[in-house]
Amino acid sequence: MNLFDNHNRPINYLRLAVTDRCNLRCFYCMPEEGIHYLPKKELLTFEEIYRLVSMLATMGISKVRLTGGEPFVRTDLMKLIRSIVEIPGIKDLHLTTNGVLTSTFIPELKKIGIASVNLSLDTVDKQRFKAITRRDEFEPVMKTLNLLLENEIPVKINAVVMDGKNIDDIIPLIELTRNNKVDVRFIEEMPFNGEGNHYTSLTWTYKKIISYIQEHYPALHKIPDPDYSTSYNYSIPGYQGSIGVIAAFSRTFCGTCNRIRVTAQGVLKTCLYDDGVLDIKTLLRSSLEDEAIKEKLLHAFRHRVKDGFEAEKKRSDHLPVHESMSTIGG
Fold it and tell me: Which helix (H) or strand (E) holds 65?
């Protein structure tokens, strides 16, 4: 089955947050004191997640990415992963992690055929890592990266570009692609830190990031972007990996967006910038049968906003986005 929204964009990709909790306190994601975490009963259970993914698979979802918070903070995450890969129709299961707790599970992830792992890593400098994340966990994260590469699990490094924080890391991060088959993706900073905007304007736009890289690597050249790619992709002659730049705040990729999000509290977001369009958790905990829930999901998909700017204007609180990315689902 093929699933399309009201703008004739296919929907085949689910980003599912399994928890809002995280063991880091990254500057761009949440306040230093953290956020008010949801009680466990407010999170979707593994059984509810399995039921939801199974329903969505029959509707046309074939790709699932588990996010958080930090997914491995949730107990028995591998149990959920093992169950999702067995769902008929789910072709690819992906994972986004900060890498602090991940290394132990890499052999099993390899065995079950995880499609890829996105590793959040904004710096390769130990002291800057501590300053950005407000935690001293650099070594476990680098261990995870090395093990992912050794096990030949496709890995992308996600680095948020922050003015005055990690500009000096852009080149060292690119150098990871010299001898490793890794995709390093630089992301525009977004106002999802639980406090709202902490800057008056975005200095490091995707255009400035690309220009900066080109200044240091004149041979940088554009390569084809995969279907529904959120990044502009590049390579450097002789380098094994590739480079991507994501216009997350500029929102240039909305026209080909094929993804939906479900937050840890079971709220459907058909756009990263909306404030939730359907309370799936309540539906799952009601007496409704699957077909009735699927009809409500279809209604939401058929009333999807055109882009992130329209979604932001339609927010019920009429305020700019201010949630923590840990609450939204990375």
Answer: strand 63-67
> Residue ranges of the chain with pLDDT lower than 50?
193-196
Residue 35 maps to a domain: yes
Read off the tokens for 227.
């279907």
Give per-residue pLDDT as tens, 49-92: 999 999 999 999 999 999 999 999 999 999 999 999 999 999 99
Contact 53, 64 (CB under 8 A): yes
Are 204 and 189 in contact, with CB atoms under 8 Å apart? yes
The DSSP H or E segment spanning 320 is: none
Cis peptide before 69 (omega within 30 of 0): yes
Quote the tokens at residue 7.
Answer: 């703008």
Q: How far apart are CA 242 and CA 270, in angstroms?
A: 29
Say if 309 falls within a structural domain. Answer: yes
Tokens representing 94 are 């992906």
Looking from the CA of 187 toward its CB, the CA atoms found within 13 Å total 22
Say what the pTM is.
0.91
What CATH number is associated with residue 236?
3.20.20.70
Q: Are the C-beta atoms of residues 280 and 329 closer than 8 Å to each other? A: no
Q: What is the pLDDT of residues 165-208, one digit of tens each?
A: 999 999 999 999 999 999 999 999 876 544 445 555 688 999 99
